Amino acid sequence: MPSIQTTIARELNLTAAQVAAVIDLVDQGNTIPFIARYRKEATGGIDDATLRDLDERLAYLRNLEARKDEVLRAIEEQGKLTADLRAKIDEAKVMQRVEDLYKPYRKKRATRASKARDAGLEPLALLILAQGRSAKDPLALAAGLVNPEAGYPTPEDALQGAQDIVAEVIADDAEHVACLRAAAKRNGALSVEAVDASEKTAYEAYYDFSEPLSRIPNHRILAVNRGEKEKKLKVKVRTDADAAISQLERRILRGDGPFAALLKAAIADGYKRLIAPSVERDLRAELTERAETDAIRVFAKNTESLLQQRPVRGARIIALDPGYRTGCKVAVLDEYGKLLDHATVYPTPPRSQVKETQAQLAEYVRRYDVNVIVIGNGTGSRETEEVVADYIARSKAPVRYTIVNEAGASVYSASKLASEEHPDLDVTTRGAMSLGRRLQDPLAELVKIPPQAIGVGQYQHDLNQAALERALTGVVENVVNRVGVDLNTASASLLGYVSGISAAVSKNIVAYREEHGAFTDRGQLKKVPKLGAKAFQNCAGFLRISDGKNPLDATSVHPESYAVANELLKRAKVKPEALADGGVPDFASRLGDVDALAAELGVGAPTLRDIVSELEKPGRDPRDDAPEVVFSEGVRDFDDLTVGMELVGTVRNVVDFGAFVDVGVKQDGLVHVSKMADRFVKHPSEVATVGDTVTVWVTGIDKDRGKISLSMVKGKA
Q1: Mean pLDDT in the chain?
Q2: How far is residue 495's CA from residue 446's CA, in Å, rounded to a whole number?
Q3: DSSP designation for 454
Q4: Per-residue model confidence as pLDDT tens digits over 276-285
């Protein structure tokens, strides 16, 4: 049996030494971001995504081994563990196989078979299974086992009880079940019908629907599951029962003996009553797991792209959270996100105070030197946008505007965190502030919102929430640590995603900062309550201190490598203070052969190259490589759109069947996967990423349903 180390190495195409090194580092309490950034020599430079896959697989395989031990111990205690059974359990590669093998030995609640066993009918059942010869016919044998007190008053009843035992033995056989499950998976279909065919629902496309299990796409599985949960759909796995029973007969029957007819009947009963429902449950669970795993992967990728959107630096903002009856909340922010002013205006029906709103905007632009207006994309967004666009056009103000996705803003604004950050503001003003800050620094603001609420996935509320939480937390951690965090300005929410820092410790950091003033040295972190040596090692390199005592504290160079970094600065004839001025672009060329230097200094070449790269551009924000935000200069609605029109938009969401693109209309347009390229595209994520700026062409407009069809290929309808 291959070891866990060997298995993971083969699955992830890594060497055994790499896997062993990562397992050792994980077991020592090192985080994935720390290992990815600062232990490249040990891992061979494995990236953070692969490291997370390895960590997840390690946990699964360790749980599998632990379960095997439990099962072996339980069967051995029953005195039923054979060498063959032990070998099968040891060789099992998935949890389902282990559970299949354990099934005959697992304590069961009362069944027809257990009742028959208690009545002493097992010897007859074993005769039927053995398919031997007998001087007596089966009914005569059953006559000697009649037990009225146990519920078997006649030979026929006793014979049926024996058949019940046989049916359960067949159904508990792991090899039979595995064979039938595989056949159903190959040849079965998911069949769907309406609970009430006359009812109008969002699931009408599935009222009379069937698709092979092997071909049904993941988003349809999730849609069907939701419809079933809402009691709008009835869902079944359809298989060929006759073919399955015939397959079992070929596996079990040995000729035409006296027990053949009874065994055939037991096989059919065992399949229909016990195996078929179990296989259906297993296949539905497998389909759901497959679909959810893919949906989580897509959601994670979208979330990562969203968090990595480029910050709009220097933006002085009027943020508008639109509404009808309650008005449009206004928050004015300086370039650092500080609230300068706030109000409520009523540009939309029923009040329609357009002139008053425009006058208020003009006053804020003048008084606070505003250069950007941000509008939430929720209720009333369309009408508010018209007022803003008209104001800009009429006044010729040096102001641009953009639409920001509101997803999750209400969750944050009503949260305990928001009330702690802004106790004197009402919920709606907090929401408007959040929208403005999303433009200034998407990462810092979006980490305050549960990732599930960000709204860049599909069916996220239907998914396994624990698995979704794990995946999204990993994504946020990766992005936060890739970007780095300012120790003196970061919120507790943001600090909580830094490598090695728990939610409790993040609050302690903020409390320490408030009590003692700004951090001037990374070493001060060791004074923060509950931030021990291992946590310091994990987090220090990801926390930045601007204008601190040591210029290296503003870089991603880890404190453990400061001696090496200082030696490099010395050899390059560069003063540490130069790092605060943007680094040394020709730093690498001043040092010569980096690999030779690494050997001389006794440090790994990957680590040395990372240090050199950082000293060339200290504190560089990788988000600066992301596409720029698309600002609007005019306004567009359905009436402005025509088939064939060329537009530039921003990708807001990527799902299994395509990408949703914001083209300046309240409703995002859909680019179906078939219209994303001139070639076959397996998944939309191959072509588009959340935040991408793309050119699209309008291929269809359904004003009544509020739907826009787009293509990323000119002329492809």
Answers
A1: 89
A2: 13
A3: S
A4: 999 999 999 9
Going from the C-alpha of 325 to that of each of 222, 412, 427, 667, the distances in angstroms are 36, 22, 16, 21
The burial of 99, by beta-carbon neighbours within 10 Å (0-12 exposed, 13-18 middle, 19 or more buried), is given as middle
* Residue 367: Cβ within 10 Å count: 11
Output the CA angle 113-115-117, nearest 5 degrees: 70
Three-state secondary structure of 597-630: HHHHHCCCHHHHHHHHHHHHCCCCCHHHHCCCCC
Pair 346, 327: CB distance under 8 Å: yes
As a whole number, mean pLDDT of residues 555-570 equals 93
Could you check whether the bond before residue 350 is cis, i.e. omega within 30 degrees of 0? yes
The pLDDT of residue 101 is above 60:
yes
Neighbours of 196 (CB within 10 A): 10
Q: Which pair of structure tokens corresponds to residue 143?
A: 């006559």
407: nearest Cα among 453, 443, 372: 453
Q: Determine the Cα–Cα distance for residues 10 and 329; give it in Å rounded to an integer.
A: 56
DSSP label of 228:
H
> pLDDT (tens digit, 9 = 90+) per residue, 655-698?
888 888 887 776 788 899 889 888 888 888 888 887 777 888 88
Residue 584 phi/psi, 5° resolution? -130, 95
Q: 361 near 388, Cβ under 8 Å?
A: yes
Phi, psi of 629 (to 5 degrees): -65, 140
Phi and psi dihedrals of 624, rounded to 5? -65, -15
Q: 39 and 29 in contact (C-beta within 8 Å)?
A: no
Please state, in angstroms and rounded to a whole number, the distance separating the CA atoms of residues 248 and 237. 19
For position 635, what pLDDT does the model report?
Answer: 45
Q: In angstroms, how far is the first alpha carbon of the chain from the final one?
A: 54
Which of 533, 455, 548, 531 is CA-nearest to residue 496? Answer: 531
**Contact status, residue 601 vs residue 608, Cβ threshold 8 Å:** yes
Q: Is 315 helix (H, G, I), strand (E, B) or coil?
A: coil
Q: What is the DSSP string of 693-717?
A: EEEEEEEEEETTTTEEEEESSTT--
CB 554 within 8 A of CB 545: yes
Torsional class of 603: left (φ above 0), alpha (ψ -120 to 50), beta (otherwise): beta
Rg (CA), the chain: 33
Domains of the chain plus CATH, in order, are 4-105 (1.10.10.650), 317-440 (3.30.420.140), 510-625 (1.10.150.310), 638-711 (2.40.50.140)
pTM for this one? 0.81
Percentage helix, strand, coil for the chain under 3-state DSSP, each rounded to 5: 55, 10, 35
- In this structure, is the dihedral angle defined by the CA atoms of residues 53, 56, 61 and 62, taken in order, positive or negative? positive
Which letter, b or e, does each residue of 102-118 get, where b requires 16 or more Cβ atoms within 10 Å of its Cβ? bebbeeeeeebbebbbe
pLDDT of 626 strictly over 90:
no
3-state secondary structure of 672: strand
Separate counts of helices (H) and strands (E) for the chain: 30, 15
